Amino acid sequence: MLEAAIVRFDGLCEPNPGGVACAGYVIDRPGRPSVTGYAVLSSGPDMTGNIAEYGALIMALEMARGLGVEILTVKGDSLLVVNQMRGRFAVNSLKLLPYYRKAVELAAVFNGVVFEWVPREENTEADALSRKAFEDLVGPEDVDDAERLERARLILDCGLVSPVSADIYRVKQYIVDLAGQICECKDHEYRKCRCKHIIAAELFRTEAAHFTIFRQADNLMDGGEN
């Protein structure tokens, strides 16, 4: 009987892009303990979340090969990576190409590989492992408020903040709840503090309020001159 396994992988880059790329994976085989792994892959201006996802996939495939696994079901929450490995998405990024080729090379070693996309909520163990790699590197106290404010200002200046409702904002791809001081990003989930997305939403709300006041004052002045 062929040795089968389910692989789950996850990668993160903080900040993304240009930060620390980390990876985590879980390999489950029937009747055996799970095999897990996590690592800091690299850091620097060329690192991205997609590179981290590929790094996690490559680590998992290499480990599965070493365990003698022959049939794999590979699950990840990166639509890009999963669909590129399925052949449904083209690989247009020259930065990603070597990672993609390495992953394809490793996948070809197995007798059968199926790639499945899963929502993040179903990939929590691999996600936690990639975050643990980041946590072990930076430590829980490594928070620079001045740098966070600078990055939040950059997000705002790039027009990446938009209101959804009174207290809810979309900042980049994340939803921010200012009333609850909650953000969907991994940085907030890990540190439980005001991430740059929350700060950017607060800056947006403050500046919007100032603009409204100035506009009302202008209207009053215009009305007084008529």
Short description:
By secondary structure, the chain is of the alpha+beta class. It is 45% helix and 24% strand.
CATH class membership of the largest domain: Alpha Beta
Strand content: 15-25%
Oligomer: single chain
Number of DSSP-assigned strands: 9
Biggest pleated-sheet summary: 5 strands, mixed
Order of helices and strands: EEEHEHHEHHEEEEHH
List the topology elements:
Blueprint lengths: L3 E11 L5 E9 L6 E9 L5 H18 L4 E6 L2 H8 L10 H11 L4 E6 L6 H15 L6 H13 L3 E3 L4 E4 L2 E4 L4 E2 L2 H6 L4 H30 L1
Parallel strand pairs: 1-4, 4-5
Antiparallel strand pairs: 1-2, 2-3, 6-7, 7-8, 8-9
Helix pairs in contact: 1-3, 5-7
Walk me through this protein's architecture.
45% of the residues lie in helices and 24% in strands. The chain is an alpha+beta fold. The strands form two sheets. Strands 3-2-1-4-5 form a five-stranded mixed β-sheet, sandwiched between helices. A hairpin with a 2-residue loop joins β7 (168-171) and β8. The protein is elongated and about 80 Å long.
